[in-house]
Amino acid sequence: MGETAESRGLPDAAGRRAAGGVAARLAFLRRFISCCSGTTAVEYGLIVTLIFLAIVTAVTFFTSSANTMFSHINTAVSAAT
Questions:
Q1: Is residue 24 a contact partner of residue 9, using CB atoms and an 8 Å limit?
Q2: pTM higher than 0.85
Q3: pLDDT tens digits, one per residue of 41-69
Q4: Helix, strand, coil % over all residues of the chain, rounded to 5
Q5: Mean pLDDT across 33-39
Q6: Can you tell me the distance from the alpha carbon of 49 to that of 8, in angstroms, rounded to the nearest whole number?
Q7: Is 73 left (phi over 0), alpha (psi -120 to 50) or beta?
């Protein structure tokens, strides 16, 4: 039989608490708070949102302009026939 692997803080099959206790959880919390990846993800999310809003605004403006142009064309063609 092989050797048993280290649990790495995972609960066992009986549902007992993970090894490590409060000190391990506090250390994890400190690492989580000092981590910058969440902040970076939020910043990227804001940038993507701004780009999306700029695209929606541009498409809305273009659609309005295109509708006006085709209305003028329709009026001119109708008047010519």
A1: yes
A2: no
A3: 788 889 999 999 999 999 999 998 999 99
A4: 70, 0, 30
A5: 71
A6: 38
A7: alpha
